[in-house]
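Aim 2, interim progress: modelling of the zinc ion-bound target.
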Amino acid sequence: MEVDPLLSYARARQPEMVAQIRQFVECESPTDDASAVNRFVELVSDTVTPFAKVKTFPGGKFGRHLVCEVQLPGRKNSGQVMALGHADTVWPAGTLRTMPFRQADGRLWGPGVLDMKAGIAFFIFAVRALRELEIPVASKVLLQLNSDEEVGSPSSRALTEKNAARSQAVLVLEPGTGLEGKLKTARKGVGDFTIRVHGKASHAGVDFQAGASAVLELARQIERIAGFTQLKHGITVNPGVVAGGTRSNVVAAEASAEVDIRVGRLKDAPALEQKFRELKPYDPRCTIEVSGGLNRPPMERSAGIARLCRMAQKLARELQIKGYNSYIASEGGAGK
Ligand SMILES: [Zn+2]
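Predicted structure of the complex, ligand included:
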């Protein structure tokens, strides 16, 4: 494919792109403010309406999710590709007052520039380039923007799963990582467990032996749980929060821990979850309650993902973009 006309198209429109990003950034859209997110979704919708069929879907207590099918030149005979992003940001309403949009030193600043309004603007200009340069595109192209990504996508997840399952490829519009613009081609799966220990309270002075310390039991369990980590298999287990007891002179009746788990391979999850469910108390007078599990499966670097990455690297070389290598991340979120 000839890339240069696209590059010159993009270069000539850089001021227009910056103006588009500015307009998006100045329409603040914190996740917890559904009407603000809806205003932003409406702005995107108005922007793409000249060249896309737009639908929105209710997001419950969050803003609406947007799905649009882009009208591109060429016969559509090669399945569907989805571009995925989110309309919400982590920045509270009013952040613009202290952190206004600005452009300096070859960079843009402002709430949500990076995560991820610039990505949405780039997609819109990519679509416009394909249309205006009349480059045929064989795949149907969808854009989906979720309104609740920053809080774990509770109301959009099903819609994403449905549209992704129908797509040959899903490209997340979040920017590449770091100044080298690295692409993410894998991500660990994430989950959490809560461990509750119930012991037996007693007075540490008067009645010490009558007590069964939930704090002591939990401390022993934490040692065991931490041992579930297997770094060479990409499995990590982090007991990150503990709580328990009431006073230092009381043998503790209750204690609990919150544990973060990450796996690089989906096939490792069941055995790890089983280990949690099989935890037995050291002190038979204590009982253990375990809840939780994996809530985000890993994105494993499949052959298809590797192929897409090589395609992106090849296009980047043709455009003389440096960096753009594959990169393995360990953080959660739809596209971070
Ligand atoms: Zn993001």
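Residues 86, 115-116, 149, 174, 335-336 surround zinc ion (CB under 6 Å). The mean pLDDT is 93.
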